[in-house]
Write a structure and sequence with these properties.
With 245 residues, the protein is α/β, with parallel strands linked by helices. The protein has 2 domains: 158 residues, Rossmann fold; 76 residues, Alpha-Beta Plaits. It is 29% helix and 25% strand. It has a 7-stranded mixed sheet with strand order 3-2-1-4-7-13-14. Strands 9-10-8-11 form a 4-stranded antiparallel sheet. The structure holds ribulose-5-phosphate. The site of ribulose-5-phosphate has 17 residues, from helix 3 and helix 5.
């Protein structure tokens, strides 16, 4: 921790510690590193850019969103895409929540589609969170969803038939719903009753016009949990899952 980091609120300290530990233990020279989106990942990018200069590392980054692309460019890191590197050595990202069975809800920042593609394209998917996000119940957070604009009303009923209520997401600084980096609509699906995450992940994606949803039931290779003064690492969390999803 630097002196500046020491002045951060507890939750931010936890994110910084987890991001730095991930970098120290799991990112190596010559790696192609996929970079997620969000406030936790901003700390990771800062630490990565400092380490690359200090240790003269040859690391190529692949951003999961336009915001991350901007942040990587500002930090002077080498940037590429999945077109050049369809297989990543590692993909580092955070999540909105992690359940006790290691299911993630992602897409609070609206970048879920690219994030899922990158998590799948990586040899290792590393999830970095602060301890307020784990363990959390699936119903504690809505399911982010990306929809083709002209399907925005046709998806409502099929989503309702799966037990969910679709709501458009509104942000600040623009009139109208949040638009993804891919030019689609971002919304959220609210469930009131417990659901099977694997089934709902698949069934939401089967609705015509749904591009992707923020339920991630794929394998996580490491879960890095930051506390204000320490870091917990769970290796191969998916294999410890109590439930057959
Ligand atoms: C963006 C995401 C982020 O990983 C998630 O929203 C967590 O962000 P933060 O680190 O700011 O809490 O899924 O689409």
């Amino acid at each position: 921790m630097t002196t500046t980091d020491n002045n951060l609120p507890q939750k931010e300290k936890a994110k910084v510690l987890a991001a730095k530990k991930t970098l120290e233990d799991f990112v190596f020279d010559d790696f192609i590193v996929g970079i997620g989106t969000g406030s936790t990942i901003k700390y990771f990018i800062k630490a990565l850019s400092e380490l690359v200069v200090q240790d003269e590392l040859e690391i190529i980054t692949v951003p999961s969103s336009f915001e991350t692309h901007l942040e990587l460019a500002r930090s002077g890191l080498s940037i590429s895409t999945l077109v050049e590197f369809p297989e990543l050595d590692t993909y580092v990202d955070s999540a909105d929540i992690v359940t006790s069975d290691y299911v993630l809800l992602k897409g609070g920042g609206g970048a879920l589609t690219m994030e899922k593609i990158m998590a799948k394209a990586a040899k290792e998917f590393i999830v970095v969170i602060d301890n307020s996000k784990y363990p959390k119940d699936l119903l504690s957070h809505p399911v982010p969803i990306e929809i083709l604009p002209l399907a925005v009303n046709t998806v409502v009923e099929p989503i309702y038939n799966l037990g969910g209520e679709f709501k458009l997401r509104y942000g600040k600084g623009k009139i109208g719903p949040v638009i993804s980096d891919n030019g689609n609509i971002i919304g959220d699906v609210y469930f009131k009753q417990q659901y099977n995450p694997k089934e709902i992940e698949r069934n939401l994606n089967n609705i015509p016009g749904v591009i992707e949803n923020g339920i991630f039931t794929l394998d996580i290779h490491r879960l890095i949990i930051g506390h204000p003064d320490s870091v917990e690492i769970i290796d191969q969390p998916s294999s410890h899952s109590k439930k057959e999803l």
